[in-house]
Design a protein that fits this description.
about 40% strand, 5-stranded mixed β-sheet, about 5% helix, binds CU-O-CU linkage, 4 helices, binds copper (II) ion, globular, mainly beta, about 475 residues
């Protein structure tokens, strides 16, 4: 870790003007040393056929790190600082997906902070209130920037969590690469108007089918984040027993056996895996969606068996998410629809050139200067029920910034997950989402299939 003095020298050498995030100035004395995240171009070996030039990554300034954006480790209830330095050739920001932090730190250009232009930086400082698995990514020109590599995993630790014998963190994503590893067109318009455009190379931690060692007969916490711009996974594990212990950062009340689990873009799952007993045996994490399942990653048992059992692990302590008061909650209808073609709004954060989708009939790409009214102004501290209806034949992973919500009811599911920041809304699903508007500010609400987000399926709530 660099110390504070080295930072100041570093930023002086950069010659850029740093925008000081709200809060940092006031609390500079108490602020922890920032985690450096230099958004920059790099090369990486991703496809079998050749090196990919000009991937985008967050460089933590640590010589031991790989090309992939680092796994950021934070602690529940403790301040965390990060300094974004923009060495790309276009504006960017960082959004901390799922963290219920102050609006000024949320990373949405125009809405919560200025663009961070090339050569400039931005200091983020916040305290994550919840423990669990989260992730981070830009909120500007998202299809290009995330598609090129800017998606990383966040682990918020809780000292009260049960301890495991080891931990494996997996960042699942695809890449749109040609045979020799070069980037190809990031999307096809006709697919953007449907389920989204898929990548051509599938990776976990930027590797094709990586293998991780873990103690034989031991208990492993596997943290999985689906950070792809399009792909919905249906994960399963073969060769070992596993239980689902958390979904989208929040502990499940009663851990249940993993069979097949859908994981849409933006969603996370934490598994407790009991490794096979004998050295050399493998467990395989696979994607079982569609007709030809494939291996995402494998876990290889090493050493003599620790002889642990899944039942040895206590459930994770819950996060402090407020319970909505349903009896007084105002109900807000939200319709997700396809839309007739409009002229897309111009944006410093790039435009895909099309409009295909709308929320409550308004298409918005989500990163233009405040062009639309909020869906609703929520009163600080009050409870609400979003009556959301997916009036399209496609699934949409719908994400709300800054607030967690609970799925109260749905016409398409009987088992309801713990509170979440992202619901994978199924085709024609109608659901009731309950929340307490306990975090003030403007909070974006959008589909996390990025082509849908950028072609209209974005909106926001104002909490005041
Ligand atoms: Cu994962 Cu608007 O973000
Ligand atoms: Cu969508």
């Amino acid at each position: 870790m660099l110390n504070r003095r080295m930072f100041l020298q570093g930023s002086a050498a950069l010659g850029g003007a740093f925008t000081l995030g709200a809060g940092l100035a006031a609390r500079a004395g108490a602020a922890p040393d920032p985690q450096i995240l230099t958004a920059r171009f790099a090369e990486a070996q991703i496809a079998a056929g050749g090196v990919t030039p000009r991937v985008m990554t967050y460089d933590p300034g640590d010589p031991a790190s790989t090309a992939m954006p680092p796994v950021l480790r934070m602690r529940k209830g403790e301040p965390f600082a990060a300094r974004l330095v923009n060495r790309l050739d276009e504006p960017t920001t960082v959004h901390w997906h799922g963290l219920r932090i102050a609006n000024a730190m949320d990373g949405v250009p125009e809405m919560t902070q200025p663009y961070v232009y090339p050569g400039d930086g931005f200091d983020y400082l916040f305290t994550p209130p919840d423990a669990g698995t989260f992730w981070y990514h830009p909120h500007c020109n998202t299809l290009m920037q995330m598609g090129s590599g800017l998606t990383g995993v966040i682990v918020v630790e809780n000292p009260e969590d049960p301890s495991f014998d080891s931990e494996i963190v997996l960042n699942l994503r695809d890449w749109r690469l040609g045979a020799s590893g070069e980037f190809i067109a990031p999307f096809k318009p006709r697919d953007a108007a449907r389920g989204g455009t898929y990548g051509t190379v599938r990776t976990a931690n930027w590797q094709r089918e990586p293998v991780y060692d873990a103690p034989a007969g031991g208990l492993v916490r596997v943290r999985i984040a689906a950070t792809d711009v399009t792909r919905i996974y249906t994960i399963g594990l073969e060769g070992a027993e596993a239980r689902v212990i958390a979904l989208d950062g929040n502990p499940v009340e009663i851990p249940f056996a993993l069979d097949r689990l859908d994981l849409g873009p933006g969603q996370r799952v934490d598994l407790a895996v009991r490794m096979p007993q004998s050295e050399g045996q493998h467990a395989r994490l696979g994607n079982f969606r569609g007709s030809s399942p494939w291996t995402i990653a494998a876990f290889r048992a090493v050493g003599t068996s620790l002889k642990r059992e899944l039942g040895d692990i206590a459930p994770l302590p819950p996060n402090p998410v407020a319970e909505a008061d349903i009896s007084t909650a105002k109900r807000i209808p939200i319709d997700l629809t396809a839309t007739a073609e409009h002229e897309p709004a111009a944006s410093i954060c790039g435009s895909l050139g099309y409009t295909f989708w709308a929320i409550n009939k308004v298409p918005w790409p989500g990163d233009t200067p405040d062009p639309v009214a909020p869906i609703e102004e929520l009163k600080f501290g009050k409870s609400y029920v979003l009556e959301i209806a997916n009036r399209t034949p496609h699934a949409h992973p719908i994400h709300l910034h800054g607030l967690s919500f609970r799925i109260l009811a749905s016409n398409r599911r009987s088992v309801l997950p713990p509170p979440t920041d992202t619901i994978l809304l199924l085709p024609d699903e109608q659901a009731q989402l309950a929340l307490v508007a306990d975090n003030p500010g403007d909070w974006v609400f959008h589909c996390h299939i990025i082509e849908h987000q950028k072609t209209g399926m974005s909106a926001y709530f104002r909490v005041a």
